[in-house]
Amino acid sequence: MPTRPEDWPPLTPGERSVAIEVLVHGPLSRSEIARRLGLSPGSLTRLTKPLIEQRLLVEVPEAGGGPAGGRQGRPSRPLDVVADSRYFLGFKITQDMVYGVVTTLRSEIVARHDRALATHDPAEVAGLLAGMTAELSRGRPGVAGIGIGVGGLVEDRAVVGESPFLGWRGVPLAALVQERTGLPVVVENDTAAFVEAETWFGAGRGLDRFVVLTIGAGIGYGLVLGGRRVPYAGDEDRGFGRHWILDPHGPLTPDGRRGSAVSLLTIPNMRYQVRAATGHDRTYEEILASAAAGEPMAARVVAEAGRALGTLVAQIANFVMPQKILLAGEGVGLMEVAGDVVAETVRDHRHPRAAPVGLETRVSDFHDWARGAAVPAIQVLVLGAAPV
Questions:
Q1: Is pLDDT above 70 for 72?
Q2: In 3D, which of 236, 228, 227, 144 has the Cα closest to residue 181?
Q3: Are strands 143-150 and 185-189 parallel, antiparallel or unpaired?
Q4: Rounded CA gap, 122 and 46, in Å?
Q5: Is the omega angle on the peptide bond into residue 27 within 30 degrees of 0, that is, cis?
Q6: Are 270 and 291 within 8 A, CB to CB?
Q7: Shortest CA distance to 203 belongs to which of 179, 183, 222?
Q8: Would you place residue 249 in the very low, low, confident or very high pLDDT band (cuts 50, 70, 90)?
Q9: Which residues touch 83 (CB under 8 Å, ≥6 apart)?
């Protein structure tokens, strides 16, 4: 079985549709696949044959162990993807760390490896990624490609046009890493990649209208309509939080922004508010613990953040009407301390008879973002289905 993308024959549009349907929703019976895609039995047989020959799809036993109701003749066995037929590496680059994972074709994490980032020099970072690739690939001959998630503007899934966190402009990251690893590389904005992963394999699987909202070092937002991520004209998080004013009388950020989602909700600015008021530098976890214990300054900052988050969630729900909002990121610990404030604020900003907001909170770490980075690589390198 070929293990490298250049050895696989490209999928036709019909084969791609079948593969994606089974990958995201499988296992599925042939009749269900045909119904979903509007195909005749003969057309489906023609499309699935090469996918089975490439070991991308495989017949699996029916749930329950056999044909139901004493059905006569050869039973139709459901089709599913061979999840471990190909492996992918996903990397999430932060200011001071690189988080790496190995995932299956269905985005299941099977290994992790992290390294400290001592420099932001692009060539040095590419070398570090190459070393991590060698470590993660050891004993896995089926590694098919690499996905890299970066906060900032990414062009053509290859070049980091701008990344304020890393101080990069116009860095051809995909080419630098591919040159050192020999593997195909897909680079994507980290929020966009995370949204793709949740849409295909996570909280948004099978939903028509879905929103991802992340809080942490920044504010991230992703919108899914008709089961597809809505692309932005720039990157996924550029200016979103800075220009969404939640309280015009709210606190200032160091750069003079007042009352925006960034000034109220991000970890650096919550720490800045406490430091400016008390003269003491505290971690985010310490601020949350102090607020839970009733310390006045920390409690005020956390309560303001809770009201801001509730307002933001309510406004998204009012305008987008999503079936679910996924709240994720390294800042979701806020919900443990200010969850009641968030819920009360959401109710205050919604019509009394509006349906409850389907808010799901995900305690996630940077490995989840690395997993997300692998998904655009799966989409592009295996399926030829470029994310929007």
A1: no
A2: 144
A3: parallel
A4: 46
A5: yes
A6: no
A7: 222
A8: confident
A9: 104, 105, 106, 108
